[in-house]
Amino acid sequence: MGCVAFTGGGTGGHIYPGLAVAEKLKNRLGQGCRIIWIGSNRGRDRAIVEEAGLDFFGIPAGKLRRYFSLRTIPDAFKVAAGFFAARSILKKQRVDLLFSKGGFVSVPPCAAAASLDIPVFTHESDFSPGLATRLNLRFVRRSGGRVFTAYEDTAAFLPAALRETVTVSGNPVRPVFRAADPAKGRAFLGLASDQRLLAVLGGSQGAKEINDLVRGSLDELCRHYTVLHQYGPDQEWDLPRTDRYIPLPYINEEMPHVLAAAELVLGRSGAGTVWESAALGKPMILVPLSGSGTRGDQIENARYFERAGAAQVLSGAEAAAGGLSRAVGALAQDGAKREAMAQAARRIGGLDGASIIGDSIVEFIFARGWAG
Protein backbone atom coordinates (compact mmCIF):
# COMPACT_ATOMS: atom_id res chain seq x y z
CA MET A 1 0.00 0.00 0.00
CA GLY A 2 1.32 3.41 -0.89
CA CYS A 3 -0.42 6.48 0.44
CA VAL A 4 -3.83 7.66 1.67
CA ALA A 5 -4.39 11.41 1.58
CA PHE A 6 -6.84 13.31 3.78
CA THR A 7 -8.22 16.71 2.97
CA GLY A 8 -10.43 19.27 4.67
CA GLY A 9 -10.08 22.14 7.05
CA GLY A 10 -10.94 25.69 7.93
CA THR A 11 -12.21 24.71 11.37
CA GLY A 12 -11.39 22.05 13.92
CA GLY A 13 -14.74 20.46 13.11
CA HIS A 14 -13.37 19.52 9.68
CA ILE A 15 -9.97 18.38 10.96
CA TYR A 16 -10.39 16.47 14.23
CA PRO A 17 -12.86 13.89 12.84
CA GLY A 18 -10.47 13.24 9.96
CA LEU A 19 -7.62 12.77 12.41
CA ALA A 20 -9.75 10.22 14.27
CA VAL A 21 -10.11 8.21 11.05
CA ALA A 22 -6.38 8.59 10.30
CA GLU A 23 -5.54 7.20 13.73
CA LYS A 24 -7.70 4.14 13.07
CA LEU A 25 -5.99 3.61 9.72
CA LYS A 26 -2.54 3.79 11.28
CA ASN A 27 -3.59 1.22 13.87
CA ARG A 28 -5.00 -1.12 11.21
CA LEU A 29 -2.36 -0.76 8.48
CA GLY A 30 0.74 0.11 10.49
CA GLN A 31 3.87 1.23 8.70
CA GLY A 32 2.65 -0.21 5.41
CA CYS A 33 0.49 2.84 4.76
CA ARG A 34 1.66 6.44 4.59
CA ILE A 35 -0.95 9.06 5.52
CA ILE A 36 -0.72 12.71 4.49
CA TRP A 37 -3.01 15.73 4.77
CA ILE A 38 -3.74 18.33 2.09
CA GLY A 39 -5.12 21.54 3.57
CA SER A 40 -5.09 25.31 3.45
CA ASN A 41 -1.72 27.03 3.47
CA ARG A 42 -3.25 29.62 5.83
CA GLY A 43 -4.74 29.34 9.30
CA ARG A 44 -4.18 26.78 12.05
CA ASP A 45 -4.76 23.67 9.91
CA ARG A 46 -1.06 22.87 9.54
CA ALA A 47 -0.34 23.15 13.28
CA ILE A 48 -3.23 20.86 14.24
CA VAL A 49 -2.34 18.20 11.66
CA GLU A 50 1.40 18.21 12.29
CA GLU A 51 0.80 18.00 16.04
CA ALA A 52 -1.02 14.74 15.28
CA GLY A 53 2.09 13.43 13.53
CA LEU A 54 0.96 13.64 9.89
CA ASP A 55 2.78 15.26 6.97
CA PHE A 56 0.92 18.38 5.88
CA PHE A 57 0.86 19.86 2.36
CA GLY A 58 -0.60 23.33 2.01
CA ILE A 59 -2.49 24.60 -1.05
CA PRO A 60 -4.17 27.92 -1.92
CA ALA A 61 -7.77 27.95 -0.72
CA GLY A 62 -10.56 30.23 -1.90
CA LYS A 63 -13.90 30.46 -0.13
CA LEU A 64 -16.94 29.00 -1.88
CA ARG A 65 -20.00 31.24 -1.82
CA ARG A 66 -23.66 30.88 -2.76
CA TYR A 67 -23.74 34.60 -3.58
CA PHE A 68 -21.58 37.06 -5.51
CA SER A 69 -19.23 39.44 -3.73
CA LEU A 70 -16.11 41.39 -4.66
CA ARG A 71 -14.03 38.47 -3.32
CA THR A 72 -15.64 35.89 -5.59
CA ILE A 73 -13.27 36.49 -8.53
CA PRO A 74 -9.96 36.37 -6.60
CA ASP A 75 -11.23 33.36 -4.67
CA ALA A 76 -12.02 31.61 -7.96
CA PHE A 77 -8.35 32.00 -8.95
CA LYS A 78 -7.32 30.53 -5.57
CA VAL A 79 -9.59 27.53 -6.16
CA ALA A 80 -8.01 26.97 -9.58
CA ALA A 81 -4.51 27.32 -8.11
CA GLY A 82 -5.51 24.89 -5.38
CA PHE A 83 -6.57 22.34 -7.98
CA PHE A 84 -3.21 22.36 -9.76
CA ALA A 85 -1.26 22.38 -6.51
CA ALA A 86 -3.28 19.43 -5.20
CA ARG A 87 -2.89 17.53 -8.45
CA SER A 88 0.88 17.92 -8.25
CA ILE A 89 0.92 16.71 -4.63
CA LEU A 90 -1.27 13.70 -5.39
CA LYS A 91 0.98 12.65 -8.27
CA LYS A 92 4.27 13.26 -6.47
CA GLN A 93 3.16 11.47 -3.29
CA ARG A 94 1.63 8.61 -5.33
CA VAL A 95 -1.66 8.80 -3.47
CA ASP A 96 -3.94 5.77 -3.88
CA LEU A 97 -7.08 7.09 -2.14
CA LEU A 98 -8.32 10.50 -0.98
CA PHE A 99 -10.60 10.95 2.05
CA SER A 100 -12.38 14.30 2.33
CA LYS A 101 -13.68 15.69 5.60
CA GLY A 102 -15.21 18.75 3.99
CA GLY A 103 -14.73 22.49 4.10
CA PHE A 104 -14.05 24.64 1.07
CA VAL A 105 -10.37 23.64 0.97
CA SER A 106 -11.40 20.04 0.19
CA VAL A 107 -12.95 20.78 -3.22
CA PRO A 108 -9.75 21.30 -5.29
CA PRO A 109 -8.09 18.09 -3.97
CA CYS A 110 -11.25 16.07 -4.65
CA ALA A 111 -11.45 17.45 -8.19
CA ALA A 112 -7.76 16.77 -8.72
CA ALA A 113 -8.08 13.19 -7.41
CA ALA A 114 -10.99 12.43 -9.74
CA SER A 115 -9.00 13.81 -12.68
CA LEU A 116 -6.25 11.31 -11.82
CA ASP A 117 -8.68 8.39 -11.34
CA ILE A 118 -7.92 8.30 -7.60
CA PRO A 119 -10.96 7.10 -5.60
CA VAL A 120 -12.55 9.82 -3.49
CA PHE A 121 -14.26 9.03 -0.18
CA THR A 122 -16.13 11.82 1.62
CA HIS A 123 -17.90 12.30 4.94
CA GLU A 124 -20.65 14.78 5.80
CA SER A 125 -20.87 15.72 9.49
CA ASP A 126 -24.09 17.71 9.38
CA PHE A 127 -27.70 16.67 8.94
CA SER A 128 -27.86 18.12 5.42
CA PRO A 129 -24.84 18.36 3.09
CA GLY A 130 -23.02 21.65 2.79
CA LEU A 131 -21.89 23.26 -0.46
CA ALA A 132 -18.43 21.67 -0.41
CA THR A 133 -19.90 18.18 0.02
CA ARG A 134 -22.43 18.77 -2.77
CA LEU A 135 -19.60 19.71 -5.10
CA ASN A 136 -17.43 16.81 -3.98
CA LEU A 137 -20.19 14.26 -4.61
CA ARG A 138 -19.63 14.49 -8.36
CA PHE A 139 -15.98 13.56 -7.82
CA VAL A 140 -17.00 10.65 -5.61
CA ARG A 141 -19.28 9.36 -8.35
CA ARG A 142 -16.72 9.90 -11.11
CA SER A 143 -13.98 8.09 -9.17
CA GLY A 144 -16.03 5.16 -7.88
CA GLY A 145 -15.66 6.28 -4.26
CA ARG A 146 -17.96 6.14 -1.25
CA VAL A 147 -20.04 8.51 0.88
CA PHE A 148 -20.32 8.48 4.68
CA THR A 149 -22.93 10.41 6.63
CA ALA A 150 -23.43 11.15 10.31
CA TYR A 151 -27.22 10.82 10.05
CA GLU A 152 -29.36 8.25 8.30
CA ASP A 153 -31.72 10.91 6.93
CA THR A 154 -28.88 12.68 5.11
CA ALA A 155 -29.05 10.16 2.25
CA ALA A 156 -32.34 11.71 1.15
CA PHE A 157 -30.46 14.91 0.23
CA LEU A 158 -28.05 13.08 -2.08
CA PRO A 159 -28.41 12.22 -5.79
CA ALA A 160 -30.22 8.92 -6.28
CA ALA A 161 -27.22 7.44 -8.11
CA LEU A 162 -25.07 7.85 -4.99
CA ARG A 163 -27.44 6.61 -2.31
CA GLU A 164 -26.34 2.99 -2.67
CA THR A 165 -22.77 4.06 -1.85
CA VAL A 166 -23.81 5.68 1.45
CA THR A 167 -22.73 4.28 4.80
CA VAL A 168 -24.18 5.82 7.97
CA SER A 169 -21.17 6.15 10.25
CA GLY A 170 -22.03 8.81 12.77
CA ASN A 171 -19.46 11.53 13.18
CA PRO A 172 -15.88 10.33 13.84
CA VAL A 173 -14.77 11.16 17.38
CA ARG A 174 -11.17 10.89 18.52
CA PRO A 175 -10.55 7.81 20.69
CA VAL A 176 -9.32 10.00 23.55
CA PHE A 177 -12.92 11.16 24.09
CA ARG A 178 -14.18 7.60 24.52
CA ALA A 179 -11.39 6.94 27.04
CA ALA A 180 -11.66 10.31 28.83
CA ASP A 181 -11.17 10.42 32.60
CA PRO A 182 -13.39 12.82 34.61
CA ALA A 183 -10.88 12.79 37.49
CA LYS A 184 -8.28 14.29 35.15
CA GLY A 185 -10.76 16.97 34.11
CA ARG A 186 -11.47 17.87 37.73
CA ALA A 187 -7.77 17.99 38.54
CA PHE A 188 -7.12 20.30 35.58
CA LEU A 189 -9.87 22.68 36.75
CA GLY A 190 -9.03 22.34 40.45
CA LEU A 191 -12.47 20.97 41.38
CA ALA A 192 -13.45 18.83 44.33
CA SER A 193 -15.03 15.46 43.63
CA ASP A 194 -18.49 16.70 44.70
CA GLN A 195 -18.58 19.91 42.64
CA ARG A 196 -21.21 19.85 39.90
CA LEU A 197 -19.86 21.16 36.61
CA LEU A 198 -21.60 22.98 33.75
CA ALA A 199 -19.32 23.08 30.67
CA VAL A 200 -20.00 26.07 28.41
CA LEU A 201 -18.41 25.56 24.99
CA GLY A 202 -18.48 28.34 22.44
CA GLY A 203 -16.35 26.46 19.92
CA SER A 204 -12.62 26.85 19.31
CA GLN A 205 -13.13 30.46 18.16
CA GLY A 206 -15.68 31.33 20.82
CA ALA A 207 -19.24 32.44 20.22
CA LYS A 208 -20.38 35.95 21.07
CA GLU A 209 -24.00 34.94 21.60
CA ILE A 210 -23.01 32.20 24.04
CA ASN A 211 -20.68 34.60 25.85
CA ASP A 212 -23.44 37.22 26.15
CA LEU A 213 -25.82 34.58 27.53
CA VAL A 214 -23.28 33.60 30.16
CA ARG A 215 -22.69 37.21 31.16
CA GLY A 216 -26.42 37.82 31.56
CA SER A 217 -27.19 34.66 33.53
CA LEU A 218 -23.98 33.86 35.39
CA ASP A 219 -25.31 34.43 38.91
CA GLU A 220 -28.20 32.02 38.29
CA LEU A 221 -25.97 29.43 36.64
CA CYS A 222 -23.56 29.54 39.58
CA ARG A 223 -26.41 28.87 41.99
CA HIS A 224 -26.50 25.30 40.65
CA TYR A 225 -23.08 24.64 39.14
CA THR A 226 -19.45 25.51 38.96
CA VAL A 227 -19.29 26.98 35.45
CA LEU A 228 -16.41 26.20 33.10
CA HIS A 229 -16.61 28.75 30.29
CA GLN A 230 -14.50 28.38 27.14
CA TYR A 231 -14.99 31.85 25.71
CA GLY A 232 -12.65 31.70 22.68
CA PRO A 233 -9.02 32.79 22.09
CA ASP A 234 -10.08 35.65 19.82
CA GLN A 235 -12.67 37.03 22.24
CA GLU A 236 -12.05 39.69 24.88
CA TRP A 237 -13.37 38.70 28.30
CA ASP A 238 -13.26 40.60 31.58
CA LEU A 239 -15.11 38.45 34.12
CA PRO A 240 -12.57 37.10 36.65
CA ARG A 241 -12.27 33.55 37.89
CA THR A 242 -14.03 32.74 41.15
CA ASP A 243 -14.69 29.60 43.16
CA ARG A 244 -17.80 29.01 41.01
CA TYR A 245 -16.71 30.42 37.64
CA ILE A 246 -13.72 29.32 35.54
CA PRO A 247 -13.24 31.30 32.29
CA LEU A 248 -10.64 29.95 29.85
CA PRO A 249 -9.96 31.19 26.31
CA TYR A 250 -9.27 27.74 24.88
CA ILE A 251 -8.92 24.17 26.12
CA ASN A 252 -6.76 21.85 24.05
CA GLU A 253 -5.68 18.36 25.07
CA GLU A 254 -7.54 18.49 28.38
CA MET A 255 -10.93 19.00 26.68
CA PRO A 256 -12.01 15.31 26.62
CA HIS A 257 -11.38 14.99 30.36
CA VAL A 258 -13.10 18.29 31.15
CA LEU A 259 -16.12 17.24 29.12
CA ALA A 260 -16.17 13.87 30.89
CA ALA A 261 -16.32 15.68 34.25
CA ALA A 262 -19.33 17.82 33.24
CA GLU A 263 -22.86 17.05 34.40
CA LEU A 264 -24.36 19.27 31.69
CA VAL A 265 -23.04 20.84 28.48
CA LEU A 266 -24.11 24.19 27.03
CA GLY A 267 -22.93 25.15 23.55
CA ARG A 268 -23.52 25.63 19.87
CA SER A 269 -24.59 22.64 17.81
CA GLY A 270 -21.70 22.22 15.44
CA ALA A 271 -21.00 18.59 14.61
CA GLY A 272 -17.93 18.39 16.84
CA THR A 273 -19.65 19.66 19.98
CA VAL A 274 -22.76 17.49 19.74
CA TRP A 275 -21.01 14.25 18.77
CA GLU A 276 -18.17 14.56 21.28
CA SER A 277 -20.73 15.26 24.00
CA ALA A 278 -22.84 12.33 22.83
CA ALA A 279 -19.83 9.98 22.86
CA LEU A 280 -19.48 10.83 26.56
CA GLY A 281 -23.21 10.55 27.25
CA LYS A 282 -23.73 14.20 28.21
CA PRO A 283 -27.14 15.94 28.31
CA MET A 284 -26.97 19.14 26.31
CA ILE A 285 -28.53 22.58 26.11
CA LEU A 286 -27.92 23.80 22.57
CA VAL A 287 -28.07 27.34 21.17
CA PRO A 288 -27.67 26.81 17.41
CA LEU A 289 -26.15 29.45 15.19
CA SER A 290 -28.95 30.98 13.11
CA GLY A 291 -29.66 33.93 10.86
CA SER A 292 -28.49 35.10 7.45
CA GLY A 293 -24.87 34.14 8.04
CA THR A 294 -25.57 30.40 8.20
CA ARG A 295 -27.29 27.80 6.02
CA GLY A 296 -29.14 26.39 9.05
CA ASP A 297 -26.99 23.29 9.59
CA GLN A 298 -26.64 23.90 13.33
CA ILE A 299 -30.41 24.20 13.71
CA GLU A 300 -30.85 20.86 11.92
CA ASN A 301 -28.20 19.19 14.09
CA ALA A 302 -29.75 20.59 17.27
CA ARG A 303 -33.29 19.54 16.40
CA TYR A 304 -32.11 15.99 15.63
CA PHE A 305 -30.57 15.65 19.09
CA GLU A 306 -33.65 17.25 20.65
CA ARG A 307 -35.99 14.79 18.89
CA ALA A 308 -33.79 11.94 20.10
CA GLY A 309 -34.17 13.18 23.68
CA ALA A 310 -30.50 14.07 24.17
CA ALA A 311 -30.75 17.86 24.13
CA GLN A 312 -32.87 20.89 24.85
CA VAL A 313 -32.73 23.61 22.19
CA LEU A 314 -32.93 27.33 22.94
CA SER A 315 -33.86 29.47 19.95
CA GLY A 316 -35.79 32.63 19.27
CA ALA A 317 -37.03 34.34 22.44
CA GLU A 318 -35.78 31.46 24.60
CA ALA A 319 -32.17 32.11 23.51
CA ALA A 320 -31.88 34.81 26.16
CA ALA A 321 -30.43 35.00 29.65
CA GLY A 322 -33.79 34.30 31.27
CA GLY A 323 -34.49 31.29 29.07
CA LEU A 324 -31.03 29.87 29.74
CA SER A 325 -31.38 30.36 33.50
CA ARG A 326 -34.72 28.55 33.50
CA ALA A 327 -33.42 25.67 31.37
CA VAL A 328 -30.29 25.11 33.47
CA GLY A 329 -32.18 25.46 36.74
CA ALA A 330 -34.86 22.96 35.70
CA LEU A 331 -32.34 20.34 34.56
CA ALA A 332 -30.13 20.88 37.61
CA GLN A 333 -33.07 19.90 39.81
CA ASP A 334 -34.30 16.97 37.72
CA GLY A 335 -31.87 14.07 37.93
CA ALA A 336 -34.23 11.66 36.18
CA LYS A 337 -34.51 13.99 33.19
CA ARG A 338 -30.74 14.41 32.99
CA GLU A 339 -30.24 10.64 33.09
CA ALA A 340 -32.80 10.08 30.33
CA MET A 341 -31.03 12.68 28.17
CA ALA A 342 -27.66 11.09 28.95
CA GLN A 343 -28.89 7.66 27.87
CA ALA A 344 -30.26 9.12 24.63
CA ALA A 345 -26.90 10.80 24.00
CA ARG A 346 -25.05 7.52 24.60
CA ARG A 347 -27.24 5.73 22.07
CA ILE A 348 -26.31 8.26 19.41
CA GLY A 349 -22.66 8.52 20.42
CA GLY A 350 -22.24 4.76 20.49
CA LEU A 351 -21.90 4.80 16.70
CA ASP A 352 -18.12 4.69 16.26
CA GLY A 353 -17.63 6.67 13.07
CA ALA A 354 -13.83 6.49 13.08
CA SER A 355 -13.88 2.68 13.17
CA ILE A 356 -16.68 2.37 10.58
CA ILE A 357 -14.95 4.65 8.07
CA GLY A 358 -11.48 3.30 8.81
CA ASP A 359 -12.65 -0.31 8.32
CA SER A 360 -14.36 0.65 5.05
CA ILE A 361 -11.17 2.24 3.72
CA VAL A 362 -9.14 -0.82 4.73
CA GLU A 363 -11.70 -3.13 3.07
CA PHE A 364 -11.49 -1.05 -0.12
CA ILE A 365 -7.69 -1.15 -0.05
CA PHE A 366 -7.54 -4.93 0.30
CA ALA A 367 -10.26 -5.46 -2.32
CA ARG A 368 -8.11 -3.50 -4.78
CA GLY A 369 -5.08 -5.63 -3.90
CA TRP A 370 -3.08 -2.61 -2.72
CA ALA A 371 -1.95 -4.39 0.44
CA GLY A 372 -1.30 -7.96 1.35
Descriptive overview:
With 372 residues, this protein is of the alpha/beta class. It contains 14 helices and 13 strands. The protein has helices at residues 12-29, 45-51, 72-92, 107-115, 131-143, 175-178, 182-189, 208-224, 255-261, 271-279, 297-307, 321-332, 335-349, 353-367, and strands spanning 3-7, 34-40, 55-59, 95-100, 120-124, 146-149, 166-168, 197-201, 226-230, 245-248, 264-267, 284-286, 311-313. A 7-stranded parallel beta sheet has the order 3-2-1-4-5-6-7, with helices on both faces. Helix 1 (12-29) packs across helix 14 (353-367) and helix 7 crosses helix 9 (255-261). The longest helix is centred in the first third of the chain and has 21 residues, at 72-92. The chain is elongated. The relative contact order is 0.13. The model has no long low-confidence stretch (mean pLDDT 91).
Helix amount: 40-55%
Strand order of the largest sheet: 3-2-1-4-5-6-7
The backbone outline, from C-alpha atoms, is elongated
Mean pLDDT comes to 91
What is the count of β-strands? 13
